Structure prediction request, 131 residues.
Amino acid sequence: MIKISKFVLVVLLLLLPMIALADSLNIKNGRYSGGPVIVIKLTEKQKERIDKKYKPYNKMKLTKSQQTEIASKAKMKEPPTQVIVVRPEDTQVDCTCGIANIGLILKGGVIELPVSYLATDKEAKEMEIVD
Prediction:
């Protein structure tokens, strides 16, 4: 019984770093590297809000044209009306499990939306983890 417990402990300790890494987004060279993305241009108002009031994981409303672009490129009938904006480096220290509609802030007034994280507003709400 004790040998089995030690074995389980060793396996868990070896898996811990992989589990910890699984909680963050795949970021390489400041960009999402885990699959296809949609890059959308921000409005001046959106850029200004991010520049002046940035807090990781704040929600940002999307314009109708941004929603249409996302729907077209991601082949979604019901695109999100808002995204959660975050700088790519901030995702590496926080758990991103249970997150949807994440927009990674890039230079040049654009955000990058990982397609695999896109969901309807209703789906995103259901996925939210309450602390």
User: Anything to note?
Assistant: The two ends are 37 Å apart (CA to CA). Residues 8-22 have pLDDT under 50 and may be disordered. The chain has four helices and seven strands.
